[in-house]
From TrEMBL:
Name of this chain's protein: DUF2851 domain-containing protein
Domain of life: Bacteria
Pfam families: DUF2851 (PF11013)
InterPro entries on file: DUF2851
Length: 422
C-alpha cells in the first residue's frame, strides 16, 4: 500500500463515504475533502467535516499507518496543529498534536471497495516494461490528448530551465544564450557539454566582431577545443593555428578546461571537427540569428536559415591532415529538426514567457510539422497501440516514460487515473 493511492482515494472519494465512523465510533460526515496542494505540510488543506454534531474546518493528513505520524515527527511540528482528521489505511496507534490533544482517525480500509483495491493492485503490479501496458490502448482519446499537452509543456519547461538560468547570468543576452545552446546541440549527446563550454568561454561580442571571416571563427572554435596544439604541415591548419594565437592574445582569452572531444562511434559527418566547422559557417553567414528564429513561423522557414555547408577545406577533410573525397557536408533536414526540438522551440517558449505572450498552439504546431523520433521508447509505445505521428507525440511519450512510468507515478498520471476509474 502506498500513500499516493490513499491520496487518490481521498481526493476522488473512491470510498463509501455515506456512513463513516471514526476509530472511536463517532459519526463522520465530509462536507469538503480539502485542497490537494502537494506542498510542505498536511496533505489536504481547508477541509470541512462533521464529527458527531461538531463542525470542524482545517487540514487532513494521510498515512498508511497511524504510527507514521510519529515516524515523520509531526507531533513536534506546529504546521500539523490544524489537522482535524488523520486518514489512514491501518490504525495502529492514537496520535496527538503538539498540545497533546488527540486527533480523530478514519481507517479507510473498511470503506474501500474490493474492486477499487484490485484495480490499483493490477495497475501497480510489475509488468515487463510499464504497469499499464495491457490497458494503455483503451484510454479515451480525448483524455490522452489533453494529457499529452500537459506532458509536452512539462518537458518544455525542463528544457527551457537551463536557458533561463543562463539568461540570468548574462543579463538576458538572448543571442549569447542561443549561441551556447545551439553549440551544445551541434555537439550531440557525446560532445554537447564540451561544445557548450567552448561557446560559453567566448564572449559573443567576439563572435560578432570576427564573423566576417569564417577562418577566424574556426580558429576560435578549434583553438578552444584543443585541436590546434600540435605541430602539423597542413597549410590550413597552420593558418588557423596562427589566427588562434593572434585572437587569443587580442581578446585575452583565458585558458579553460574543455573535456576532450570524442570521435569514437560517430559517423564521419558527426565528427566534432565537422560540427564545429558547420557552426562557424552558420554564424559567418547569418546576422541576428536570434531574431530570425523568433520570427520564423514554420519549420520550412528554419530550413533556409540553417542552410549551411562547411568551408572549402572541410569539404575534402574530416580531420586535419587527412584528405577525403569531396562532400559539401550540409546540415541535413533531420539535424535541423533535432535543433528545432532541443533548442529552437525551448528558446521560443522562454522568450514568449519573458514577454508574457501565449504561444502554446504555435509551439505544438512546430513539432507537429516534424517526424517523430525513432528510438526504443517510441517503438515500445507503438507496440502497445500508442503511435507517435510526429515530434509532438514522441516528445510527450518520452516525458511520460521518463518522468512518470520510470518513477511509478501512476496516480499522478492522467492515464493511470483514467484506468482506475474503469
Amino acid at each position: 500500500m502506498q500513500e499516493d493511492f490513499l491520496h487518490h482515494i481521498w481526493q476522488y472519494r473512491k470510498f463509501a463515504f455515506g456512513k463513516l465512523l471514526t476509530c472511536k465510533g463517532e459519526e463522520l460526515q465530509i462536507l469538503h475533502s480539502g485542497h490537494y496542494l502537494q506542498q510542505a505540510g498536511p496533505d489536504f488543506f481547508n477541509a470541512q467535516i462533521y464529527i458527531g454534531n461538531q463542525k470542524w474546518a482545517g487540514n487532513i493528513e494521510i498515512h498508511v499507518k497511524s504510527s507514521d505520524w510519529y515516524v515523520h515527527h509531526h507531533e513536534n511540528d506546529p504546521a500539523y496543529d490544524a489537522v482535524i482528521l488523520h486518514v489512514v489505511w491501518e490504525h495502529d496507534t492514537n496520535v496527538f498534536r503538539s498540545d497533546n490533544s488527540e486527533i480523530p482517525v478514519l481507517e479507510l480500509k473498511n470503506y474501500v471497495a474490493k474492486e477499487t483495491l484490485e484495480s490499483y493492485l493490477s495497475l501497480s503490479s510489475a509488468k515487463s516494461w510499464i504497469y499499464c501496458e495491457k490497458d494503455l490502448a483503451s484510454v479515451n482519446g480525448f483524455v490522452l490528448k489533453k494529457w499529452q499537452e500537459r506532458l509536452f509543456f512539462e518537458r518544455l519547461e525542463r528544457k527551457a530551465l537551463p536557458m533561463q538560468q543562463h539568461l540570468l547570468r548574462n543579463q538576458h543576452d538572448w543571442e549569447t544564450t542561443l549561441f551556447c545552446f545551439l553549440a551544445k546541440n551541434f555537439g550531440l549527446n557525446t560532445n554537447g557539454d564540451s561544445f557548450f563550454a567552448i561557446a560559453d568561454s567566448i564572449l559573443f561580442s567576439i563572435i560578432r566582431k570576427e564573423k566576417s571571416e569564417v577562418e577566424n571563427l574556426e580558429a576560435l572554435f578549434f583553438g578552444r577545443a584543443g585541436f590546434l596544439r600540435e605541430e602539423k604541415q597542413d597549410v590550413y591548419y597552420l593558418n588557423l593555428q596562427n589566427r588562434w594565437h593572434y585572437l587569443s592574445d587580442k581578446y585575452q582569452l583565458k585558458n579553460v578546461f574543455i573535456e576532450p572531444l570524442q570521435f569514437f562511434k560517430h559517423r564521419p559527418d558527426n565528427f566534432p571537427t565537422i560540427r564545429l566547422a558547420q557552426l562557424a559557417q552558420l554564424y559567418h553567414q547569418q546576422d541576428n540569428l536570434f531574431s530570425k528564429i523568433i520570427a520564423s513561423e514554420s519549420v520550412s522557414a528554419l530550413y533556409s536559415v540553417f542552410n549551411v555547408k562547411v568551408s572549402d577545406y572541410w569539404q575534402t577533410h574530416y580531420q586535419f591532415d587527412k584528405e577525403s573525397p569531396k562532400k559539401r557536408k550540409v546540415l541535413t533536414s533531420s539535424f535541423v529538426e533535432l535543433l528545432v526540438v532541443n533548442t529552437i522551440v525551448p528558446i521560443q517558449f522562454s522568450y514568449a514567457k519573458h514577454l508574457g505572450k501565449e504561444v502554446s498552439d504555435d509551439l505544438i504546431g512546430f513539432l507537429e510539422e516534424i517526424a517523430a523520433e525513432k528510438n526504443v521508447i517510441i517503438d515500445k509505445f507503438s507496440g502497445f497501440g500508442i503511435h507517435a505521428e510526429n515530434a509532438f507525440d514522441s516528445q510527450t511519450l518520452l516525458q511520460l516514460k521518463n518522468e512518470y512510468c520510470n518513477n511509478k507515478k501512476c496516480l499522478q498520471c492522467e492515464i493511470g487515473i483514467e484506468l482506475l476509474k474503469k
